[in-house]
Amino acid sequence: MLNLVLFGPPGAGKGTQSQKLIEKYGLIHLSTGDIFRANIGGGTELGKLAKSYIDKGQLVPDEVTINMLNSEVEKHENSKGFIFDGFPRTHPQAKALDKLMQSKDTNISAMIALDVPEDELMGRLKKRALDSGRTDDADPKVIANRIEVYKNETAPVKKYYEAQDKFYAINGLGSIDEITERLFKTVDSLK
Ligand code: AMP
Q: Would residue 90 be called left, alpha or beta, if left means φ above 0 and alpha means ψ between -120 and 50 degrees?
């Protein structure tokens, strides 16, 4: 199986590039942010809980997020592999993901980070707010909070994968196609 963690701050292009990876490698895309938003749209209990955190730019608690991800993975018994987009965002989530992969007799192949400078991120998120309908993109205070949370809690997760020799970073600046090409090269080098 090919199991990729796509990593990077809000606005780095994880969602866009995930689509390209799905098409080329036939993977299942699991975006925890998308799943939370679908639950919010559906008015589920999970959605209500998640919304209270997402609206402030805070992380949804680990236990809730990990349980949700575990049950999503269970839904795809025969997949060729997964792209985890927006997960893990904390150290406990990274450990839980390893445990889950082990229980399926597989492992994480690599974490690939999209490197984008902060001033570029702010511009991209402001643009995205105009057409995504995402309330957490619309408020500069919420965006700033998400970037802070990323720096403090999520960026350190990189070390977890570095220690396993599974961390790769690519330049996230340039056209969508240029970035996709860099990603494909990295993924093909894993095989
Ligand atoms: P995203 O679409 O990945 O930018 O996620 C939007 C929001 O959903 C985040 O700002 C968090 O509030 C929440 N969220 C998404 N993934 C996670 C995660 N792995 N752990 C905790 N909260 C998450």
A: beta
